[in-house]
Amino acid sequence: MVRLLGRSQARSTHRADPTRARHTPARRVGHADRAARERFWGLRSALSGRSVAGQVFVLQVAIVLLLVVAAVVALVLQVRHDSTQEARNRSVAVAEAFANAPGTREALSSRDPSAILQPRAEAAREATGVDFIVVMNTDGIRYTHPKPDRIGKKFVGTLAPALAGRTVTEEINGTIGRLVQAVVPIEAPGGKVVGLVSAGITTENVGGAADRQLPLVLLAAAAALALATGGTALVSRRLLRQTHGLGPHEMTRMYEHHDAVLHSVREGVIIFSGEGRLLLANDEAHRLLDLPADADGRPARDLGLPPDTADLLASGRMATDEVHLVKDRLLAVNQRPTDVKGGPPGWVATLRDSTELRALSGRAEAARERLNMLYDAGVGIGTSLDVTRTAQELAELAVPRFADFATVDLFDAVLSGGQPEAVTPVRRTALSGIRKDAPLYPLQQQIRYVATAPQSRSLRSGQAVLEPDLARAAGWREQDLERTTQVVEYGIHSLITVPLRAGAMVLGVVSFWRSQKPEPFDVDELALAEELVTRAAVSIDNARRYTREHSMAVTLQRSLLPRTLPEQTALEIAYRYLPAQAGVGGDWFDVLPLSGARVALVVGDVVGHGLHAAATMGRLRTAVHNFSALDLPPDELLALLDEMVGRIDQDETPEDGSAPVIGATCLYAIYDPVSRNCTVARAGHPPPALIRPDGSVEFLEVPAGPPLGLGGLPFETADLQLPEGSRLVLYTDGLVEDREHDIDEGLDMLREALEQAGPSPEDTCRVVLDARLPSKPGDDIALLVARTRALPADRIAEWEVPSDPAAVAEVRARVTRRLTEWGLDELAFTTELILSELVTNAIRYGGEPIRVRMLFDRTLVCEVCDSSNTSPHLRYAAMTDEGGRGLFLVAQLSERWGTRYTPAGKVIWTEQPLP
């Protein structure tokens, strides 16, 4: 709208007032005053007559005023007419009634008519409300009158018609004022007029009620005038807002300007009503849309437009630069509703011919899209170090932005992390397309391309190949005549093949297929495909290298872990080991048989991933093996392991390129099937769980020592008495801790899983991993479940031995009897000899008390314990020595032997294989 100077100045000044942005209490009064002033000036502008609203207001008020005045005058005239008519009717009625009353005619012939008629006339006058009733003779001499002094005088009025037998009514100005009187003849039976009766009434008496109602009528007229004026003011005020205070000349000029602008702009403008009918279309809109001459008033769908354009214009929805093809023009359509700020219902659309602009910007848009796709390739390809996933990301990025179908074929060696060989076939690793039913080779199929195929030429030459028309590409069709025919019939007509090159090494080939666009791939698109594949090749090669290193690390780690569990009868064991998806870590476990049918359980974790963590884990596992051979308690073994890790950290300097061992944890437990006692110590490791025979689950209270390598604090042990059939659950933190759950929540979830597990260790491992194993583990998981067994009492023999050499014979006898009970007579001689030597040494060099114990397990275990801490040493006696051959004989007769220390002394033990 064109804004005219002088009319909008006050409004623009008002909008620019900075005080409107404040809402403090002190400003609110000012706002109210300002609003009142605005209303006053708006009303004054409306009444000024200069604007259209003012002129309408004045005209409407004048019309209403004239109507009110006319109504009042008409009412007054009507009231007067009705009063006169009423006076005529009443005076005639009274006069006729009195003239025809009984005795009236007879009284005229009496000697004194006045004496008879005067009282009757006065009574009738008072009863009927008239001003006078006059009875007279035919000469007009009065016989009656309200004023007695008028009796006998001549009546003033017209008598001739009455003497002729007719009734006469007339308005005269009498002595009592303006009145209406009627003269009625008194006729004898023969029709002769013998007298006259006149009745009259003043108009003042008849119209008095009307005069009293006149003020009320005027008041109602004034109220109607006020209401009409107020309604007119409201209408004028609304008109004032809608016309913005413009006068007729200004509005005319504005319309002329608008009309000139509307039909001269190079943009089409069309306006539709709320019902979807065309209200206005300028000349440019008629030209662009080729509208018919009688388009005004038609719905949008009846204007002969393309369906998509007609649907948009008929819907009224908002649109911004939507491009529609109308005949040979590309029109950019913008559409907005017109009732956003109180406007009339409907919508307006503007049309801009963008055919030339689209043609000029097409190449720039294509170049921008290519740059965006290359940027997205740098961001979206290679998000993981998985070869297959990286290849799929390349295929998904190219479809549908560059091609309708994309395939990635890699050598099998690349998928496993090895070096590809050009003579081997490739495997379809990734496939993406706009549809799923394309007759291309499916995923995972091994393909051997013929020499004439574009893919084979790309693999040999290392260069991209463009096949613009597959229907005429004889070399491509030789690959598989049936399948290639199906591909062409499916609509795929153009192909680009690009080798995946990482330096001088070719990893595979990428194929881009086109079906929907009728134009074949061109040289520019060939260059874009080469750039896209070059960026993806780097990511695929990185994934290949990672796969190779990951496989090497996994192989190293698995070689360092126990391949089979040692034979033992104290525990029924099941285990699981799952490496992390991102890389191998340093988790390990072990089961170590100890002397006396005991078994040690070990679970450890080295924080970190990769070869260094796996190698460090192997060193720690080897150290645990060595330390366990010394038969040390768990706390002492962890102390030695902690000292060893500290030495490793000191030896591995930053110049070596190796990282220190930080965050290594370990849990070491020893279970004795004879006493059912379990001794546990841990170094920064999660506590073990115990499933009792009744199915209840608890986490054992084992003192938490510091992680290995920190030093300074001693380790403590916990001695537990385990019922037979209990399950001891050892694990690493990868099972109970991840990015989504802290360790406390993980322990609660592990408890729930253990409560649902079956009775066997295998069932326990399966249920725990099904419940707690994440889809993509970020850390290694080691799980070890051991169900306790107890050595039967009838397989245990134990005696106290006095410190007397003569007691050795009694020991030999008891041993022989017990071996006979066990059915081990073949071992009697060697066992007697072994125990004789060990008991003799204990009596000679040890201290009391001395005890002998035999265990019938997988082997025959013989133990001699005393209170001395002195350990015997094996030596080879010379030919001339008389002694020193006892331990040598023991070592030769037993399969294993050794010494372990206890808080009360030492134990010398031997193991003999069963026959």
Automatic annotation (TrEMBL):
Boundaries of every PAS domain copy: 256-321
Places the protein is found: Cell membrane
Entry membrane topology: Multi-pass membrane protein
Coiled-coil portions: none
Region (Disordered): 1-31
CDD domains, sorted: HATPase_RsbW-like (cd16936), PAS (cd00130)
Domain PPM-type phosphatase intervals: 568-788
Stretches that traverse the bilayer: 57-79, 216-235
Swiss-Prot/TrEMBL keywords: ATP-binding, Cell membrane, Hydrolase, Kinase, Membrane, Nucleotide-binding, Phosphoprotein, Transferase, Transmembrane, Transmembrane helix, Two-component regulatory system
Record domain GAF: where: 386-550
Keyword presence, Hydrolase: yes
UniProt protein name: Serine phosphatase RsbU (Regulator of sigma subunit)/PAS domain-containing protein/anti-sigma regulatory factor (Ser/Thr protein kinase)
Organism: Streptomyces pseudovenezuelae
Lineage of origin: Bacteria, Bacillati, Actinomycetota, Actinomycetes, Kitasatosporales
